């Protein structure tokens, strides 16, 4: 969620069991995307990823601390992020080709787009098993904030002609991923996305921000009460403006307002157990939205 973007997800998805997928995400966060580009001097194959997963799985019981990234790795990662922000701030290229290849929905298809950040991006590989047979489309991008999602809302939501959209956004704004952001700024961006969806006949599910006690990549921000305040606003806004509010927070929070430890490896991103808590809640909210219940 902190600006890293997990690519090659289809290859990662084939590695089982599910904990390996989390290890793959850890690998990709440690070795950012530029290391996999054709123009890079570093050549890392998916066979190397598989080897990493095997070694990590067998050595996991030793609880060896992960090595800190080198100064060169940090510089490469920052350079890649800076270039992307300058050339494609909203990362429109991420799903451009996939969108072009997507067939229009048939008349009775209850297509749903899940728009979000790395939490949504990490969930998409589970859609086939958690939502079997459902035409659900993941459009999450790691590290993104609500203004970035607002920029790509037409391309990645409206143009796909879904019947409903599930919006899960705001935590990276609170973390300051694209600069300082007030709760009111996040609210404005969410409201704009809802208005765009409604203007195009798309029903809206507004998801609560997941609980976070502290961001590992930006500690000390005390996000828990800010998240609760934003979620309260979303619930009230959804009730007043014909959207459905989806409350993940209540089902996943611990006594501190953070995420329960068994549901996340880092207190921010859900693991498979976390996504399994979220899935039935999402299904109920989508069904309510598709019925047009207000």
Task: Explain what this protein looks like in three dimensions.
- With 294 residues, this protein is α/β, with parallel strands linked by helices.
- The chain has 2 domains: 9-87, no CATH class; 93-291, SGNH hydrolase (Rossmann fold).
- 48% of the residues lie in helices and 8% in strands.
- It is built from 14 helices and 5 strands.
- It has helices at residues 9-13, 18-30, 46-59, 71-87, 93-101, 118-123, 127-130, 146-151, 153-156, 171-175, 183-199, 223-240, 249-252, 272-291, and strands spanning 112-116, 136-140, 164-168, 203-207, 244-246.
- Strands 2-1-3-4-5 form a 5-stranded parallel β-sheet, with helices on both faces.
- Helix 2 crosses helix 3 and helix 11 runs parallel beside helix 12 (223-240).
- It is globular, with a radius of gyration of 19 Å.
What's a concise summary of this model?
The protein has 294 residues and is of the alpha/beta class. It is built from 14 helices and 5 strands.
Number of domains: 2
Q: Reading side by side through the largest sheet, how are the strands ordered? A: 2-1-3-4-5
Q: How would you sum up the global shape?
A: globular
| Tally of strands | 5
Mean pLDDT: 83
- What's the SSE pattern? HHHHHEHHEHHEHHEHEHH
CATH topology of the largest domain: Rossmann fold
Distance between the termini: 32 Å
Number of helices: 14
CATH class of the largest domain: Alpha Beta
CATH superfamily of the largest domain: SGNH hydrolase
**Biggest sheet layout:** 5 strands, parallel
* Portion in strands: 5-15%
Question: Structural class of the helix and strand makeup?
Answer: alpha/beta
> Low-confidence parts lasting 5 or more residues at pLDDT below 50?
1-65
Radius of gyration: 19 Å
CATH architecture of the largest domain: 3-Layer(aba) Sandwich
- State the share of residues found in helices, binned by percent: 40-55%
């Amino acid at each position: 969620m902190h600006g890293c973007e997990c690519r090659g997800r289809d290859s990662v998805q084939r590695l089982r069991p599910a904990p390996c997928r989390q290890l793959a995400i850890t690998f990709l966060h440690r070795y950012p995307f530029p290391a996999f580009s054709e123009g890079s001097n570093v050549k890392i194959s998916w066979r190397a990823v598989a080897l990493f997963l095997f070694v990590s799985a067998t050595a996991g019981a030793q609880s060896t601390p992960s090595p800190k990234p080198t100064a060169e790795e940090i510089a490469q990662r920052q350079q890649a992020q800076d270039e992307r922000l300058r050339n494609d701030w909203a990362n429109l290229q991420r799903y451009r080709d996939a969108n072009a290849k997507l067939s229009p929905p048939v008349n009775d298809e209850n297509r749903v787009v899940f728009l979000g950040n790395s939490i949504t991006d990490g969930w998409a590989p589970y859609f086939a098993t958690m939502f079997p047979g459902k035409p659900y489309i993941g459009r999450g991008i790691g590290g993104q904030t609500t203004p970035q999602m607002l920029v790509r809302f037409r391309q990645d939501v409206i143009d796909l002609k879904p019947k409903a959209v599930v919006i899960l956004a705001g935590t990276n704004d609170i973390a300051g991923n694209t600069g300082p952001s007030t709760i009111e700024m996040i609210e404005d961006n969410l409201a704009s996305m809802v208005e765009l969806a409604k203007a195009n006949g798309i029903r809206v599910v507004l998801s609560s921000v997941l609980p976070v006690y502290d961001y590992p990549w930006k500690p000390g921000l005390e996000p828990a009460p800010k998240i609760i305040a934003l979620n309260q606003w979303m619930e009230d806004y959804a009730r007043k403006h014909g959207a459905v509010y989806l409350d993940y927070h209540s089902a996943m929070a611990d006594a501190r307002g953070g995420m329960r430890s068994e549901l996340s490896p880092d207190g921010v991103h859900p693991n498979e157990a976390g996504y399994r808590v979220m899935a039935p809640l999402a299904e109920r909210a989508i069904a309510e939205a598709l019925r047009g219940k207000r």
